[in-house]
């Protein structure tokens, strides 16, 4: 049923549970696993010119660390393909899924409270709406409630 699973990651806390769920699912179906982290080009473009190179390097370092976290959570017997892309996170994720002929995209999302409780994060919602394949959106479980601000598990500024 699932031969190829793509895991979207930015290394945030809201992605950790999604990584574990996606890896478990991939293991059950003996699926190929890809992990993708997207450097949001709009963040770099919106920064002052003198900071762009430094910000680009920092975002790439964060993306590499996010992928290393996925690799660390993967059992030693499973190979995982990792990639870093630059662009709009939802667009890049969907394009990557097409390229690798994915059967599923797994993404984290932060649970929303109050009147926004049915909403996903902006990137996760865009992926759900535009993905060429089914999307598994895994909600972060929190014991401490906070306001609606925060990461959706993929990227900001998308």
From TrEMBL:
Q: Which Gene3D superfamilies match?
A: HUPs
Entry-linked InterPro entries:
Rossmann-like_a/b/a_fold, Universal_stress_UspA, UspA
- UspA domain residues are 1-139
At the top level of its lineage, which domain of life is listed?
Archaea
- Family, per entry: Belongs to the universal stress protein A family.
Q: Which PANTHER family match?
A: STRESS RESPONSE PROTEIN NHAX, UNIVERSAL STRESS PROTEIN UP12
Which protein, by its recorded name, is this? Answer: UspA domain-containing protein
Species assigned in the record: Natronorubrum tibetense GA33
Record lineage:
Archaea, Methanobacteriati, Methanobacteriota, Stenosarchaea group, Halobacteria
